[in-house]
Amino acid sequence: LNEDGEDGPALVKRGLLTQEELDDMHNNPCWQPHYCLHVIREILVEAHSVPGGKGLTFDENNKVHGQLFRCFDNTLKNLNVLIGNCIRVRASGLPASY
Question: Is the full-model pTM beyond 0.85?
Fold first, then answer.
């Protein structure tokens, strides 16, 4: 994100990241996808929070609301697993089937 032509400095200018966060992501490139997934999850939680921080507007007892939030959460979980698998394959240099 901090390389020439990347959007990291623009994210800092817009106030979406601090320079310290950008530097941390740049210094630990294998963690960049995890940082981004964390930001996505935080945005989902923030967007669906009850004013005053008392909880989420998703009603877990409501079949549709509960399933919707679990769908978001499970999708992010699956992305996290896939990222971990890619890092493992790259670190070992072997195909995933080994």
Answer: no
